[in-house]
Design a protein that fits this description.
Its EC number is 5.3.1.6. InterPro entries: NagB/RpiA_transferase-like, Ribose-5P_isomerase, Ribose5P_isomerase_typA_subgr, Ribose5P_isomerase_type_A. It catalyses: aldehydo-D-ribose 5-phosphate = D-ribulose 5-phosphate. The structure is a single chain. The protein is of the alpha/beta class and about 230 residues long. About 25% of the residues lie in helices and about 25% in strands. It contains six helices and 13 strands. The strands form three sheets. The protein has a six-stranded mixed beta sheet with strand order 2-1-3-6-12-13. The longest helix is centred in the N-terminal third of the chain and has 15 residues.
Length: about 230
C-alpha cells in the first residue's frame, strides 16, 4: 500500500522548484499544503525572501509559526504562484477541492495567481470527477432551501458538521453542503448550474485553474502540465 503521507511530502518538496526569491505566493489549506508551508519555513529561515497570502486561519497560523511573512490583497493584487492540494483531479486537470473547508478563499487565491500548482498523493487522480463528495459553500440563511434545490439535481446533500456535531462554519461564516454526485458527466454544466443558484456562495469545482499538478507516486513525483499528456 502506498505511503500517502510520504507521497504528499515528496510532491511538496518538488513544488519548491517553482519558488523563486522575491515571489508572492498563495498558500493553500489542508494536509498537503501544510507540508509545503513547513518546507517553505525552512527555506525562509535559510534566507529565502517570499511573501504569502494564506487561504485559511489554520494556514495563517502555521505560516506565522514558520516565520513566513504574510500579506493580504490590500497589499498585493496578483500572486506569482498559488500552491495547494486537491481532493480529486481528472486527466484534464479539473479538480474537486474543499475537503479542508477553505474552497472560497482557495478559489479567490487561485484566480489571482499567474500560475497554480496543485499537489496530490497517488489516491487523488481519477478518470472522472465525483467520487469525492462535492463541497458547496452556502449562506446560513435559508440553507435548507438551497439543500432542497440541490436535491433536485439528483443528490442528497449533507450538512458538514464539526467534531462536536455542530455545523461546520467556514472562515467566511458560511455552511458547507457535501454533495455525493457520483460520476459527474459534465462538470462545466454542473458548475454553471451551481453558479446560478441563489444562496450558493461557491463550489468545489476548480475547472480551469490548475496549470501544473504534481502527483506523489511511490518514490517519484509525476508532473502533469496543462496541455501535456501525463509522463511526457
Amino acid at each position: 500500500m502506498a505511503d500517502l503521507e510520504k507521497e504528499k511530502e515528496s510532491a511538496a518538496r518538488k513544488s519548491l522548484e517553482w519558488v523563486r526569491d522575491g515571489m508572492v505566493l498563495g498558500l493553500g489549506t489542508g494536509s498537503t499544503a501544510a507540508y509545503v508551508i513547513r518546507l517553505l519555513g525552512l527555506r525562509v529561515r535559510e534566507g529565502l525572501r517570499i511573501r504569502a497570502v494564506p487561504t485559511s486561519a489554520s494556514t495563517e497560523a502555521l505560516a506565522r509559526a514558520e516565520g513566513i511573512p504574510l500579506v493580504t490583497f490590500a497589499d498585493v493584487k496578483e500572486l506569482d504562484v498559488a500552491i495547494d492540494g486537491a481532493d480529486e483531479v481528472d486527466p484534464s486537470l479539473r479538480l474537486i477541492k474543499g475537503g479542508g473547508g477553505a474552497l472560497l478563499r482557495e478559489k479567490i487565491v487561485a484566480a489571482a495567481a499567474r500560475q497554480v500548482l496543485i499537489l496530490t498523493d497517488s489516491s487523488k487522480p481519477r478518470e472522472s470527477l465525483g467520487r469525492f463528495p462535492l463541497p458547496v459553500e452556502v449562506v446560513r440563511f435559508g440553507w435548507e432551501l438551497v439543500a432542497e434545490r440541490l436535491s433536485r439535481l439528483g443528490v442528497t446533500p449533507r450538512l458538514r458538521r464539526g467534531r462536536e456535531g455542530t455545523p461546520f462554519v467556514t472562515d467566511e461564516g458560511h455552511y458547507l453542503l457535501d454533495c455525493p454526485f457520483g460520476t459527474i458527466a459534465d462538470p462545466e454544466a454542473l458548475a454553471r448550474t451551481l453558479d446560478a443558484m441563489p444562496g450558493v456562495v461557491e463550489h468545489g469545482l476548480f475547472l480551469d485553474l490548475a496549470d501544473v499538478v504534481l502527483v506523489g507516486r511511490g518514490e517519484s513525483v509525476e508532473v502533469r502540465e496543462r496541455g501535456r499528456e501525463p509522463g511526457r
